Amino acid sequence: MTNTLLQIENLDVRFKGARNVHAINDLSLELKQGETLALLGESGSGKSVTLKTLLRLLPEKRTDLGGRIRFDGTDIMTLSGRALRSYRGGDVSMVFQDPGLALDPVYTIGQQIAETVMRHKGISRADAMEVALDMLHRVRIPSAERRMKNYPHELSGGMRQRVMIALALACRPRLLLADEPTTALDATVQIQILLLMRELQREFGMGVIFVTHDIGVAVEISERIAVMYAGQIIEEGTTHEVIRNPQHPYTQGLLAANLHDVARGTRLDAIPGSPPALETRPDACPFAPRCPLVMDACRQALPPTQRPGPRRRVACLRAGEPIPA
Amino acid sequence: MSATDKPLLSVRDLKKHFPIKGGILGRTQGMVQAVDGVSFDVAPGETLGIVGESGCGKSTTAKLLIGLTDRDEGDIVLNDRTLGRDMTLRALRRDIQMVFQDSYASLNPRMTILDSVAFGARVQGLDDPLGRARRLMDRVGLAADRFAHRYPHELSGGQRQRVNIARALAMSPKVVVLDEAVSALDKSVEAQVLNLLADLRAEFGLTYIFISHDLNVVRYISDRILVMYLGEVVEIAPVDQIWADQAHPYTRSLFSAMPSMDPDNRTEKPPLAGDPPNPIDPPSGCRFHTRCPLAGPVCKTRHPVLGPRAQGSTHWVACHLHDAHSGHPEAGKVVPA
Lengths: 325, 337
Known about the structure:
The complex is a heterodimer. By secondary structure, chain A is α/β, with parallel strands linked by helices. Helix content of chain A is 33%, strand content 24%.
């Protein structure tokens, strides 16, 4: 039995301001050590907010947080100061979508990686530079010695994302958060980065939460998939279970909309409408207005979570029923 | 396209090189060969999909087609009339319209939706631009009574893209160029817009040029697929043929870079290493030879010409492997998959 690395219980995130947004509503999630989970959802479903909450990156004054997050037993909602700094980047690190924005343009990539290592591991600059070079080799950057002295703008998009991964993994975190790291890349480069991340995960053994809107990417990278809608997880299971036997009507619709092997000219089973605005906290199934299987009960209360198997769950009254054509 | 069909739109040897200025004197230091000798025909009612990676010249080709960027060389022939000779740019834009990827940036934030849709028809002096705009808004699924007086920021991305489609159709064009028109939309909304595009094509007899990086989407909507690499056309074929059998090594790599969608059979090896080269200084000979797993000596020196795979074939490819007389050691043999 592997140990639990991360436990999120009943997380609520609400942004305050001219208008309130209930971004995350009662989200619970568990990640075991060395597990790769894809958080799959469309824009506004709360995937990126979940990651930012995990790193405590949200602006505190404008955010109401509720629920508990425990990383390896430590409550991270109460971390501050030195403990928070060592948690961020040391225990948990993140790869962002746009490496061009996430890397500092005025330092060479060698300096940037070394700085992180010096800060967290307390070693000398020379040793840290050795670590940085080793990391560039591990992410398969050709002529790494020369690249150490390059600035981010001198690298291509794919190379920058490799540097970003090297930076994130330099301190050997136990959890890697990846926020759409391949979305801005070309298809032939995307697959290289996905395979690299899979390989490094095996090598380093860290847990990974990989946020994506692309089902194909989720299939390539993850062992487990959690599907998000309107700030909630509406379905979770192994990649195999979710892809081969989707139970929630939204997951089924999403898979159909992926156009994989759809014959030309046939009509697509598009999900009508668009996701809710979340200005109020959902008190019924948020997918009900778009759902082909909707019943009166769906509009009355939040659907109960059904658990058809171990670590498998679906938040739907009509889970597993086929959608009529 | 069969040989008897006369093309609606013909593009011949289109070229666009952008100068790179730099240094203290702002001199030209190099040329980006964004589009370099692109030719293709589009039959009436056909949908041509254009695919390729970033920097391959897909979007520049689209902009050249409707004259948003001036071409350096080449001819654009629509209905037997050649742009710049017996057709004005204004006349061309009445018949070719475009929908862009960024639905928000392509609408004027200070104009209501109705005014935006009616604008082109008004400028072109068509009858009853407002009535036309209202009918089209209803047609694309935005009830004119509810949406006419709203502003772009009040709509969702999918709704804004419907506005852009309505605006493109307001001129009753023959050809619509869709440049990554559904790429920014969420998957569930993308499917709705694709259904709409298919309906409109049937209803108005439209011809589409559909540019996208998503091969599944291109396969779904297109009749033929054109593959670009570093400013050149490397392969063009009917969609079923190219899906079953990619002739160019680059096309094959591009197709196998698609995620497998099969959890039991994931991709194990990347089809290509490295990023696409810079179009500023493209490789000599065949531009793909630096990344090609099958490159021979001739590929470094001689530029392959786009031509049919066999006599009379509709499957065209620009690769020495498919030219028995090219001097490539493997030329003319069956290419291993």
